[in-house]
Amino acid sequence: MSQLFNLPPAPVLAVTGENATFPVNRIFCVGKNYADHVREMGGEPDAEKGTPIYFTKSHPAFCASGATIAYAPGTANFHYEMELVVAIGSPGFRIAEADAMDHVFGYACGLDMTRRDLQSAAKDKGNPWDTAKDFENAAVLAPLTRKDAFGTLADQPLSLMQNGETRQQAALSQMIWSVPEVIADLSRMYHLTAGDLIFTGTPAGVGPVAPGDELTGSIAGLEDVRLTIGTPE
Hints:
By secondary structure, the chain is of the alpha+beta class. 14% of the residues lie in helices and 33% in strands.
């Protein structure tokens, strides 16, 4: 039986210093993982950590660093969110927190682009965030750096610059849920596989973009993620 049409292949992510590429499977994202960002969005961090909040992005959301993308359709309030992205390198299910880092291939800088007005409307109605988070070019990714080349996750600084001005600044140690905690928790609900990516949340300082804006996201020890915002389609 023949297929009626062919779908685009899965995206691949460059690996720093290598000819090999990292095939992208699923893209998971953690919400509300920095206390100051929770507050700037009008919430208050829970006294008890509870469990992480997740949403997902599909393959068409993938965008390689360095691109110029159109200002997103369907929104008048298009936002950047700078994040550490964790790449899973081996399968695991119900992973113990103590073993979680054994499943990490490496890390990258990523931008979780968001249609903030659609997200706010969905929150007000108790609806899902899909149209706010999962759309073309909404997951911008720099090349991966292998875990061993990066070293131990600690208090590495994270920042986002918009047209040369700093908008976001934090340390990875400020995450509410650490990377091992996120991996262990996510693996209770999914069979994680090599190729899965996890956006780990953004700190305070998120804000709108406009056509012509240039974004540069940095984490010490990783390649910067860069994006230029073009005109609307």
